């Protein structure tokens, strides 16, 4: 590949990378407003994004036509680069609880003034690093390279440090390491600039846009990861909410007093912000589990044991064994409620859930929903469809008390809110 082709390829990657980075920054702004650390990190990324943007050929052309100050061959771009380095360094010190704005922005102003003075006195038009007229010992570029490395290198080290400490949060660790790679790529760019000053190979100069483009895409990936995870979780919650609606409807029709509010239409329930969808799923799962706690008193222990033997004999997969057992006794309990059977305390606990939060509970209920369609579960429901004489006589001789809402739930009752 020729140096011209390499330069053009890098320019396209750089352009699309800068556009993607700004888009992700805009999308992350609402969440960053509620966290000081995220706000400082996003400000550091804005500094990188601004530094990348001013080096884009279309932006450079517009700036050169609009600002007289910018016509001094990149002086405006380099002054902006020093500002971006100050923003990055400010984030590093803030993360270390040692933020000293005067210690950052004071030297930044001195550095910019020094660059302007050098550009118009000792080294005129020194901002043109690609010009052969700039000597290798140019103080303009040595100061500029040092200013950028002072900002990007500590930030890369900090992101690696906190990324390695985030053992339990894989997404946070990945995001921080991607940001560290982005800041490392930016540091590498300035090392390439320094190498170009010393050796002047043409192919090295052609790598400038490609290096900047790689930096832009790495920063985009690091900033975008939390956003992508939020979208993924919202999609998973909406899918669970949609799929559990038939099960929720069947159970709450049998035990209607557990519902907190009037149900939404199925398609309307999955429309909303990620927080709203998650709250609706949370309510739905709690109400389903509350119904299961009520219905387990309508099932005799021997029915539960018979259900376990039944699904085992029919070769149900191990991962669906407990959901299939639950689906079996659930059908029997619904039949008992429909027949006005009497509730009796069940010494066994038919529902065995791991306390892993909303996701594990919704996954279990989705498995119960799938198990209801299994031939083994359907055959069990058919075999227990006719009530036994003893149960019929007991239900006819004693009035059926209204099912009481279970006590001792581990889940807090959600407050009623308008969504």
Report what the structure shows:
The protein has 419 residues and is mainly alpha-helical. It has 16 helices and no strands. Helix 6 packs antiparallel against helix 7 (170-199), helix 11 (274-295) crosses helix 14 and helix 13 (321-338) runs parallel beside helix 15. The chain is elongated and about 100 Å long. It starts with a helix and ends in a 22-residue tail after the last helix.
Structural key phrases:
single chain; 419 residues; 71% helix; elongated; disordered C terminus
Radius of gyration: 32 Å
Strand content: under 5%
**Tally of alpha and pi helices:** 16
Protein structure class: mainly alpha
Rounded average pLDDT:
79
How many extended strands?
Answer: 0
Query: What is the terminal-to-terminal distance?
Result: 57 Å
Largest sheet: none
Stretches with pLDDT under 50, minimum 5 residues: 385-419
The SSE string, one letter per element, is: HHHHHHHHHHHHHHHH
Helix content: over 70%
Basic shape = elongated
């Amino acid at each position: 590949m020729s140096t011209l082709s390499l330069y053009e390829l890098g320019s396209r990657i750089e352009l699309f990378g800068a556009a993607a980075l700004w888009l992700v920054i805009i999308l992350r702004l609402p969440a960053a407003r509620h966290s000081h650390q995220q706000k400082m990190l996003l400000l550091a990324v804005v500094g990188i994004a601004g530094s990348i943007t001013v080096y884009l050929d279309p932006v450079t052309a517009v700036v050169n036509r609009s600002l007289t100050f910018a016509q001094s061959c990149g002086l405006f771009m380099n002054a902006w680069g020093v500002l971006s380095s100050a923003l990055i360094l400010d984030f590093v010190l803030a993360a270390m609880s040692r933020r000293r704005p005067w210690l950052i922005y004071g030297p930044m102003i001195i550095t910019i003034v020094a660059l302007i003075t050098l550009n118009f006195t000792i080294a005129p038009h020194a901002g043109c690093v690609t010009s052969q007229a700039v000597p290798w010992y140019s103080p303009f570029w040595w100061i500029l390279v040092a200013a950028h490395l002072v900002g990007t290198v500590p930030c890369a080290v900090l992101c690696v440090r906190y990324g390695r400490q985030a053992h339990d949060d894989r997404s946070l660790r990945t995001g921080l390491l991607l940001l560290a790679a982005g800041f490392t790529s930016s540091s590498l760019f300035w090392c390439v600039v320094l190498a170009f000053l010393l050796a002047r190979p043409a192919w090295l100069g052609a790598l400038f846009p490609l290096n900047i483009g790689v930096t832009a895409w790495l920063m985009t990936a690091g900033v975008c990861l939390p956003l992508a995870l939020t979208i993924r979780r919202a999609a998973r919650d909406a899918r669970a909410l949609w799929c559990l609606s038939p099960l929720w409807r069947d159970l709450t029709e049998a035990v209607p007093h557990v519902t907190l509010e009037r149900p939404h239409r199925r398609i309307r329930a999955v429309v909303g912000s990620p927080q709203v969808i998650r709250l609706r799923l949370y309510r739905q799962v709690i109400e389903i589990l509350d119904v299961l706690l009520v219905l387990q008193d309508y099932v005799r222990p021997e029915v539960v044991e018979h259900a376990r033997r039944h699904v085992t004999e029919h070769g149900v997969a191990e991962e669906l064994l407990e959901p299939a057992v639950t689906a079996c006794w659930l059908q029997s309990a619904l039949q008992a409620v429909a027949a006005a059977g009497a509730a009796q305390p069940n010494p066994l606990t038919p529902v065995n859930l791991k306390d892993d939060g909303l996701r594990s509970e919704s996954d279990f209920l989705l498995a119960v929903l799938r198990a209801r369609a299994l031939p083994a579960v359907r055959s069990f429901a058919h075999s227990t469809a006719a009530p036994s004489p003893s149960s019929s006589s007991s239900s006819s001789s004693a009035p059926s008390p209204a099912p009481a809402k279970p006590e001792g739930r581990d889940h807090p009752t959600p407050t009623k809110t308008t969504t």
